[in-house]
User: Fold this.
Amino acid sequence: MKKLPLNFENMLPINKALSNPTRIKILNLLSEKPHNVNELAEKLDLPFSTTASHVTKLEEVELIITELVPGRGTQKVSAMNYDRIVIDLFNKEGQNNEHEITLDMNIGDYLDCYAQPHCGVVGEKDYIGVQDDPRSFYEPERKHAQLLYFKDGYVEYRLPNRIPYGYTAKEIVFSAELCSEAPNFKLDWPSDITASINHKEIGTWTSPGDFGGERGKLTPQWWRTNLTQYGLLKQWKVNEEGSFIDNEKVSDVRIHDLELSDLPYIAFKLGIKEDALNRGGMNLFGEKFGHYEQGIKMNIKYA
Assistant:
């Protein structure tokens, strides 16, 4: 549905155009299908010149569009330009019109992946598929995953783009609980984990190790303590100033570079790059594993 947002600057001429009942009838007719002026005049039982004048008024405020199309000779045909009008009754100056969207996606709801052993998918009560078999990452039950791990690879998610039409994203933040992936666990095992949004790299965090030996706050009892237990909660943020990891600037990629308004989804990817200096793998924790009760969390501020 195409929406026309109104504010103090553009609402007056549009409201004037809509103040005439004949123009409302024209919009009703055009909502069914496009018409030329002759067809509109006939259905409204009005002179051609009067109907053409009303159509012009609606064209001037871009509520309808008129194009030349071939038919019995070339003729002008009018069509609806918007399906809905949204009025923002606030003054932009001196008022905070910022809004937020927050989504938490299960770590198993990735759309694309690549995993190399040692690797695995773990549910709340047992392994999903077979350990060290990349095919397990494609099992239907993966959507219930609470832990993903691989020595090399990535996972990519597509979250719904809920930024309203006519609004602009000011900041986007992704957070996840992560650590390196070593055999069993190893506190000193660095790994470079890189994040991207809409296929634009925004920053690499070097995990210091694979944390185990002490049970994670949420990690189930059946999972042995000599295996990975928990990670660190990391935050990737992009705004008008650049890209940040835990509020430390890491790149000059800015919010407009992500082209958030161009796609119906927002892609978020985490993984180990082929040219990473420290290729120590990755563990990604869900809401029932590790220390933090969340999966892939996204927060967007828009205005």
In short: The radius of gyration is 27 Å.
